[in-house]
Design brief:
Layout: H1 2-33, E1 39-40, E2 49-56, E3 62-67, E4 81-84, H2 91-104, E5 107-117, E6 126-135
Antiparallel strand pairs: 1-5, 2-3, 2-5, 3-4, 5-6
Length: 137
């Protein structure tokens, strides 16, 4: 009977060891297959871009026309403008910082994810969606 208990304990240890490795491999695979969706639209340590036009939409969203190059990692059809959604948490703070940069002529940097079309502009050109903004000195 003692041999049966020893065999059961060894089997249980084997299963735990095997399952832990299997779970680890599964977790690593998930992290490698599903990368982070948010991206730097302008490099964090870059020179930034200039806001040339600040446009507010009737739904509360904001379009910023920019001068300078963006990293188009989401492969939007255009990068002359970026979009700040009306329902973005903290949009008021981002809007304030963008307007301050626009008025003072300071450059800004962007972080975000995805592309968006705007019906006001015809709904045919998609531009980067911004969810973070910083002002450069």
């Amino acid at each position: 009977m003692e041999n049966v208990f020893i065999a059961i304990i060894r089997f249980e240890q084997f299963i735990r060891k095997y399952m832990n490795k299997r779970i680890l491999v599964l977790c690593l695979t998930v992290f490698m297959v599903f990368p982070s969706f948010a991206k730097y639209i302008t490099p964090l340590n870059g020179t930034g871009v200039e806001i040339t036009r600040y446009f507010t939409h009737k739904n509360g969203a904001i379009s910023l026309y920019i001068s300078g190059s963006l990293q188009n990692l989401d492969e939007c059809t255009s990068t002359f403008r970026v979009y700040i959604p009306h329902d973005l948490a903290g949009k008021e703070v981002i809007a304030s910082a963008a307007l301050t940069a626009f008025v003072s002529g300071k450059k800004v940097g962007f972080h975000g994810s995805g592309c968006s079309t705007t019906p006001f502009w015809g709904g045919t050109i998609d531009v980067p969606v911004v969810d973070n903004l910083w002002v450069l000195k």
